[in-house]
Amino acid sequence: MATKLPKVPIVIVGLGWMGGVIAAELTKAGHKVVALERGKSRKTEDYFHVHDELRYSQRYDLMQDLSKETVTFRSNEKVRSLPMRTYGSFLLGDGIGGAGVHWNGQYHRFLPYDFEIYSKTVERYGKKKIPEGMIIQDWGITYDELDPYFTKFEAMAGISGEQETVEFIGKMSKPFPTPPMKKTPAMKLFEDATKSLGYKPYVIASANLSENYTNPDGISRGACQYCAFCERFGCEYGSKADPVVTVLPVAEKTGKLEVRTHANVTRVLHKDGKATGVVYVNTPTGEEFEQPADLVILASYVFSNVRLLLMSKLGKPYDPKSGTGVVGRNYAYQIVGGSSTAFFEEKEFNTFMGAGALGNSIDEFNGDNFDHSSLDFLHGGNIRLTQTGNRPIATNPTPKGTPSWGKDFKQKSIRYANRTLSVGIQGANMPFRHHYLDLDPVYKDIYGDPLIRLTYDFEDQDKKLVSYIAEKTKAIAEAMKPSFVETGNQISKYSIVPYQSTHNTGGVVMGKDPSTSTVNNYLQMWDADNVFVVGASAFAHNSGYNPTATIGALAYRAVEGILKYLEKGGPLA
């Protein structure tokens, strides 16, 4: 029996980027907020002098404990789903700051094309261009409408990047607040190679500060030290923007934020089209609590947002057979195949140094920046060379044909440790009718609740995208004049291992039509107007970019909607 607590005005579930942004803005506006975080508390001091690759990168110290809760996976409905027992394809963050602590800091606004992908595709190519089963849809908001919210996130985080407007991406109403990161010899090589091929490279935008910065809330942070311990690590300098060093101190300073850690929310309670609160478990003791609230904001990771709604029977579950329902619909991932590795016999690079968001990229083959008329796929990908730091346990580049152990392996891994550069892609992933999230009928977590089940595989769309862009990465790598180049130009079946990308999206998608979306463009639920569901779960597909910029913009957009709701109530769209 859950212990019922006194009612509070606002409950936020999850305290990563989305929950942190919303908590800061609501408390600054004078509202009292209770934030429930399933993991433990974190602070910058936890990472002082802890460049421990084994602990963080290989043993996943910042990640969710899969023995207590995990994800099950199957490639299609004809095979049995099985739990992910060890980390592979993606990493699920845990604790204050969430994935905002262990991200690399790479920052890309989604393209204008992304937000109106259905309309723009049909306008240019006709409806027949969209293959059977692909369920792309407009997001119910445009890039220009989101620009002010991108700008807010950039000012808060101190995003470093090119000050001029870069061709092939959306126009910015304001430049980034800090200049771009340093340009390494490897980046210069990529820049020269792409320019020689007629492309227009640029330094990628970064949440790793290029210089000391004080944001509009008065939060001061120091410049990046290029130590290369970014992805899977917390930043010991506070140079990488994360919720712990940006938005949460602002919320805490107001005195209006109450944070409860080790509070694992298992249900959203609701009656007559309104949420009445949440139920959560105190994980150290196993005690269950009911927290009544006037307003519920779900701001957890994609899988958790979807799972909570499904377990709470809030919103209509998606049915792939009929194509009806919305919760669990439009799951998408990220396509990362098609990279080319350049091996140099005579040149060496200090690739052990770097930063999570240090690199150059081009966008000539992203979105609809190139003509797809004769191609059998939609969208594309961002082509880049990043220098994020090659750590010794995880990085042992060797040419094809090298044994995976023994004397020859050791000699060649040492030989090429600082003599390889990779030209890679982040490819977009389109939603298909048979890709979705639902509750597993067999496997349960430690509380006896069903795990979230992922049904997903690569489609011909993805394979053809990779094959096409692989030729572009190969040409760029060869223009860098290495000794030889190796290209991976094919992908086959998706597997839950090895690691590929933590960019999972969809399941609670936004839009204008309640029959194909769960939330409106303020991320307010159609079926319960006092529930807002914030995060990459709102994406109707995944772009050829990292998702954090768009997540941040949508969080600020949601804040605006929440404040309107608190003032007037009712549906906002």
Automatic annotation (TrEMBL):
<dbReference type="Pfam" id="PF05199">
    <property type="entry name" value="GMC_oxred_C"/>
</dbReference>
<feature type="domain" description="Glucose-methanol-choline oxidoreductase C-terminal">
    <location>
        <begin position="438"/>
        <end position="555"/>
    </location>
</feature>
<protein>
    <submittedName>
        <fullName>GMC family oxidoreductase</fullName>
    </submittedName>
</protein>
<keyword id="KW-0274">FAD</keyword>
<dbReference type="InterPro" id="IPR036188">
    <property type="entry name" value="FAD/NAD-bd_sf"/>
</dbReference>
<keyword id="KW-0285">Flavoprotein</keyword>
<dbReference type="InterPro" id="IPR007867">
    <property type="entry name" value="GMC_OxRtase_C"/>
</dbReference>
<keyword id="KW-0560">Oxidoreductase</keyword>
<dbReference type="GO" id="GO:0016614">
    <property type="term" value="F:oxidoreductase activity, acting on CH-OH group of donors"/>
</dbReference>
<comment type="similarity">
    <text>Belongs to the GMC oxidoreductase family.</text>
</comment>
